[in-house]
Amino acid sequence: MTKKIAIIGAGPGGYVAAIRAAQLGAEVTLIENREVGGTCLNRGCIPTKTYFRNAEIMSTLKRANEFGIEVDGYKMDGKALQERKKSVVNTLVSGIEKLISSYKNIEFIPGTAKLKDKNTVSVELLDGGNREVEVDHIIIATGSFPQMTETKGVDLEGVITSDELLELDHIPETLIVVGGGVIGLEFASIYQELGSHVILLASRILKDADKEIAKRLTPMLKKQGIETYVDIRAKEITKEGDKLRVVAKYKEKDEEIEVVGDYVLIASGRGPLVDGLNLEGVGIEHDRKGIKVNDHYETTVPGIYSIGDVNSKGIQLAHVASAQGEYVVEKIMGHDPDIVLEHWPACVFTMNEVAQVGYTEEQLKEKGIEYKSSKFMFSANGKALSLGEAEGIIKILAGKEDNKILGVHILGPHANDLIHEGALAIANNMDAAAITRTIHAHPTLSEAVHEAALGLNDLAIHVAPKRKRK
């Protein structure tokens, strides 16, 4: 008997779950009240990475003389930037729409879904009318929304979220960014290169990152030109003519500062999108962190699952949502999913990229796990030097006795591409030898990963030997 599955939300969690379910023979109903691709494709990952590429080019142009190139008279066109972003997004959205329609056992319904009971979804159709869908299982993949802080003055004109910033057709002269998480740092770094003077107000820098990496990143942000304040909180925002003034107070000392800008970006995180789903009506427990789920992503109502940003796991990453979606439909269809969900790569697209997978040093100490650490600087890597991007570090953490890779942390050029060697090692329970016995091409940035792995046993080639204590 064919299983029927309704999926609410066609973001990277929902549409991937729909496709995997269709591949396994399910009859799928995919419901979405906005664009396919969700926040990631339309208002998050893809638009910001499109901007990031522009920022990279601007950064290179500013440093052109280092490469013996003279460049005069370039400038950023905000409207052209918008058009390029829209073109990239529209191409990908169209591609996913065609991909979904290529599966005859997926029905796509444009509309707003509401749970009627554990087997029924009521849909208010976007083109008018209502429809009810009866299924065996329901997967909630509605994603998240940008949250505003409770700072006084956040309702003023010019105080915006990342959604509104991505719709601006000009580059602000001065942009104040409130928040030192992934969203805040990415926009701060990007807009500084696009031509804004960016002022960053952060209570802390990348709270989930290895502390050494976060500590090393902070001076890099300042070197980039970002006016950076850490251990500080925005207290009040006021309007002064066509400018915005932000009063911020340091957390550990009785001192305040005032900064003035054209826009204030509130980058204080994202909240689960659950309004209108009727969760209480069907008995699904949830809180401000999201819909409560068990280890198999099943909610408190059997047969109803929740994946991605909207669940209480707190992992707001598109690729994790996709993996959870595949996992859930494989469980529903009676398979034993061969997907490692315990560890995942996390990437930050600042000008000095940051990436990590596995445990941080702080987590290992908290768990009482004995480990050893090895670091390799990009300044000793030929490819990094030739790129003119020699700042940064690769740090590998491994078990003290078994040498199993426990964590990999990278700050520097192409960190977000390099991290997957570490992700592969951790997902497959590999030790350092899995990396060190593998020949890495020269000259590449990947050699730095190889050197860091060699360093776990004090065998790194391009690092001076440690001095023996007398």
DSSP, total strands: 24
- Name the CATH architecture of the largest domain: 3-Layer(bba) Sandwich
The count of domains is 3
Give the overall average pLDDT: 96
Task: Sum up the overall morphology in one term.
Answer: globular
Here the CATH topology of the largest domain equals: FAD/NAD(P)-binding domain
The secondary-structure class comes to alpha/beta
Task: Compute the CA-based radius of gyration.
Answer: 24 Å
How are the strands of the biggest sheet laid out side by side? Answer: 5-4-3-2-1-6-19
Distance between the termini: 75 Å
Portion of residues in helices?
25-40%
CATH superfamily caption of the largest domain: FAD/NAD(P)-binding domain
Biggest sheet, open or closed, and with what strands and sense? 7 strands, mixed
- The quaternary structure here is single chain
